[in-house]
Specification:
With about 230 residues, this protein is an alpha/beta fold. Helices cover about 35% and strands about 15% of the residues. The chain has a 6-stranded mixed sheet. Strand 2 and strand 3 form a beta hairpin. The longest helix is centred in the N-terminal third of the chain and has 16 residues, at about 15-30. It starts with 8 loop residues before the first strand and ends with a helix.
Length: about 230
Amino acid sequence: YALFNPGSKIGICSGTFRQSKLIFKQIEKFAEDPAGKFLKQCMSHVKHDPDGWEMRIGTSTIEALPLTEKIRGKRFHKVIIDEYLLVPQEMVNLVIRPFLTAKRELTPIEAKIKKMEDKLIAEGKLRENQRQKMPSNSIIGLSSASYKFEDLYKNVYLAYCDRIDDAKSEDVNHLVWKLSYEAVEGFGRLDIKLINEAREQSSKAQFDREYKAIFTDESGGFFNYQTILDA
């Protein structure tokens, strides 16, 4: 995204700063791989500070941030929240969503396209709803599935699905993507031995949430987890 949308500001957050840094480190790992030599040539200004890690790719920036009061006032065009389940919804609404209030400026190419579209619309050769869609600010939340009584399912997953399925909803630009390990196991990117070990050592409900992207009703153990939380 940073490469193909110049001038973008991308923020990486998670329940812990350590988790945010893991994604940042993976980008560095891609660049250090022999196959990533062209990516490395695009990277500059990489710094690891206690208050946040930052890199520049072309004219775009990527920051990994700790979720503390110090990050208020930051502005991004894309925010990635890893382990979304572990981030309180109040934090998402009061701290993270305000990151997205700054509108991204059009690149020279996008500005040229808009100018051409304006001319075609004025001449009656193009309708307003036929304009090319430009990148918009958004949050990308990544997480294992949760219990159905938790916020991730009730207030995020169901809410988005309802808007997508509602034919009367307007300006719907959400995407909900559930991905089981079974969908990618044939591509050689997963350690199936470890997954099979997890299947043997976990309850069915635990395995379904973590590896099959299935939201479950209860813990599948001797005690009901929802009852424990409500106590």
